[in-house]
Amino acid sequence: MDPCSLSHADLALHTSGGRGRRPSRLAQRVWSTGPVLVLFLPPAALLFTVLVVLPILQAGRYSFFDWSGYGLPTRFVGWRNFELIWRYPAFRQALFNNLLIIIVSLGIQLPMALGLASLVAGRIRGALTFRMIFFLPYILADVAAGLIWRFMFDGDYGLAAAIAHALGLPAPYVLADPDWAMVAILVVIVWKYFGFHMMLFIAGLQGIDEALLDAAAIDGASRLQRFRHITLPLLVPTIRLSVFFSVIGSLQLFDMIMPLTKGGPADSTQTLVTFLYTFGIMRMRVGFGSAVGVVLFAICVIFAFSYKRLAFRDA
Amino acid sequence: MRRINVTPMDVRLGRRPLLVAAALAALGRRALITPAHAAETMVRWLHLEVNPQILKIWNDAAAEFHAQHADTDVKLQFLENEAFKAKLPTLLQSPDAPSMFYSWGGGVMRAQIETGALRPVQMDDAWKARLNPAALSAFTHDGKVWGASHQMALMDIYYNKVLFKKAGVVAEQIRSWDDLLAAVRTLKAAGVTPIAVGGGDKWPIMHWWAYLVVRVGGRQALDDAKAGKNGGFNGAAFVEAGRLLKQLADLKPFQQGYLGATFPDMLGAFGDGRGAMILSFAGTYARQAHAAADGKGIAHDDLGLFAFPGVAGGKGQPTDTMGGINAWLVSRNAPPQTDAFLNLLTSLKYQTATAASGIYLPSVPAANSAITDTLLQQPAAELAKSTYHQNYFDQDLGPDVGRVLNDQTTALAAGTISPEGLAKQVEDAWTLAR
């Protein structure tokens, strides 16, 4: 799925060998890589086939059956599972939420990560400490982060309650409020992942040649102009990567939602994967769940390949 | 390039220890397994119990059985609740299927029976006569007994005597639904939150509706709906139950943030005094104490319970009850010794030990005399004279329709769906699942 590694592999294949010496190079290549292929490819190919390709194909097959998971799938229902998916308001909510997460990731998280990265990338005092602090949430397991924030948002004994009581306000129950629960989850997502994107940007910033910025400074460019005309264009590959991770992360989001809200209240915080889990697996409708999985898979594939074409064209 | 040429050598060198290890492992497996196969039968027992008291009783039973049948070993295997539900379908269809495993009965059991994953329990008349009739019938399907019931649960309304006294509500006077609504109004007027529920887990709200269905429609309501009679789940009893629950919800009786609260949150709210009543099962005293903020919750003497109120003009008897019934189901290829062990496990001796632990109600009524806790004696007595015991609706209807029911009853309490809309959603889900 990682377009970077794909394009590098393509690159390596295309540039190998001049036309004239090709046969001998090819022979040498086969001779040198042949044993490696024979030894290393079968286990990897077998594992990939058994653990990735077969389940995908199986899910594709099950998605046409009404099947509880017991016995063999026998009740063929054609496209009914796929038609049913669209009839669920919870599915439309899940799609909307996934989109919302992407928008917030790009509109709030990315600028925040970039801004903080430019602050702590330089060699100023305490930069390293702040980098560590900002990166810390990312190290936490999603489930642990979810549990911590469930306590923070708790209206009875949580931090939210303590703050509200200190201010003399009634305690909010954000996770129990269909209008606010998703906002609360977005807060946790940004809190958890901006540090990771910040690290990406720090790496990107450190790859920029200081001389370019110095030259611009000598030419009289202001700080803002230097950022806008030198730093930002040179960071574009990093931004593409950050966007890619945000989108894939949104499509995969599951283990943070479960401890926080389980997709509730009133399905207001479902994502595609929590929808698959609650409406497919928990209800023992493996066929229906597979159909949701197929839709999710299609979305991922379409995104991954079109994004590779659009954003990594020149990479 | 050089690196690549070298690699196969490394692998060739590294492979020898691997082969030796594999050979040793194969030998080891054989050495361990062969005698066990030759000498003994293994009854594999898959459960999800974590309470050490109960586990001790079970281990004692396994040890006694092994003492009686030296060639048979009973082995307990544990899976956590959610993992159990997720893995069981795969496990039952594999050669590693457990001989006997935990069940809530209802729709999941029917699916297991229909696909041939189970075999009936070889139950003689003495064994059948020992069991609570409701516990026996809940696991009877097509005239055969598929499960050996070992414990039961009963839902009652538990209340905080201190809060009731503060508001001037007398629990003994709550006989009908209207009495309950009046009590809710009185409690609210006294500044007490009347009811705690767990809207995040949803099923705690569903049980309120389900009990109302049992009271309004009587024992036939659910069976008729499942058979598609009287308009199925669109029938009058189901809509009326929704209307009654809406009457309650309109009074705003639930604790703050109830839509996000889990079952433990609900118990915690009750234990902390942030809710005067809960609809819960036997064992509530220990559970609320554990969930309360101070770890103690409501004192034993301050906790009371009463039967779910009746409904004026309803077909159900006040003595009809609702609650869970659990049994051990036997998988298709289980050894015949499994049945003999189940007979021992559900014998009066071990049922008495279960009853004495004060955690579950026994499925053998004769064991009730061992219950010493007053808070358990009352539900045990209700269960003993129960005119009809209804299994939890979400278990009875199966995981699919059951969860639709949980979703929609919670939506009704939250005011986002009408009683008719709730009934229609359940009927649609039921029709679709057929």
Task: List key phrases describing it.
heterodimer, A: 315 residues, 2 strands, B: alpha/beta, D-Maltodextrin-Binding Protein, domain 2, 2 domains, three-stranded antiparallel sheet, 19 helices, disordered N terminus
Overview of the molecule:
With 315 residues, chain A is mainly alpha-helical. Chain A has a two-stranded antiparallel sheet with strand order 1-2. The two termini of chain A are 16 Å apart. Chain A is flat and about 75 Å long. Chain A has a single domain (80-311), classed as Orthogonal Bundle (MetI-like fold), CATH 1.10.3720.10. Chain A contains 13 helices and 2 strands; from the N terminus they run H-H-E-E-H-H-H-H-H-H-H-H-H-H-H. In chain B, the strands form 4 sheets. Chain B has a 6-stranded mixed β-sheet with strand order 2-1-3-11-6-12. In chain B, strands 8-7-9 form a 3-stranded antiparallel β-sheet. The radius of gyration of chain B is 25 Å and the shape is globular. Mean pLDDT of chain B is 88; it is low at 1-39. Chain B has 19 helices and 13 strands. In chain B, helix 2 (52-68) packs antiparallel against helix 15 (348-357) and helix 9 (203-217) packs across helix 18 (398-414). Chain B has 2 domains: 39-152 and 324-384, 3-Layer(aba) Sandwich (D-Maltodextrin-Binding Protein, domain 2), CATH 3.40.190.10; 155-322 and 397-433, Periplasmic binding protein-like II (D-Maltodextrin-Binding Protein, domain 2, 3-Layer(aba) Sandwich). With 434 residues, chain B is α/β, with parallel strands linked by helices. At the A-B interface, helix 2 of A face helix 1, helix 3, helix 4 and helix 18 of B.
Strand content of chain A: under 5%
Helicity range of the residues of chain B? 40-55%
Oligomer: heterodimer
DSSP summary: helix tally of chain A: 13
Radius of gyration of chain A: 25 Å
User: Tell me about the biggest sheet of chain A?
Assistant: 2 strands, antiparallel
- Count of DSSP strands of chain B: 13
Identify the biggest protein-protein contact and residues per side.
A-B, 32 and 42 residues
Please state how the strands of the largest beta sheet of chain B are arranged side by side: 2-1-3-11-6-12
Shape annotation of chain A: flat
The CATH top-level class label of the largest domain in chain B: Alpha Beta
Mean pLDDT across all residues of chain B, rounded?
88
Q: Taking strands numbered 1, 2, ... along the chain, how are they ordered across the largest sheet of chain A?
A: 1-2
Percent of residues in helices of chain A: over 70%
How large a portion of the residues of chain B is in β-strands, by DSSP E? 5-15%
Distance between the amino and carboxyl termini of chain B: 64 Å
Principal-axes shape call of chain B: globular
Query: In CATH terms, what is the architecture of chain A?
Result: Orthogonal Bundle
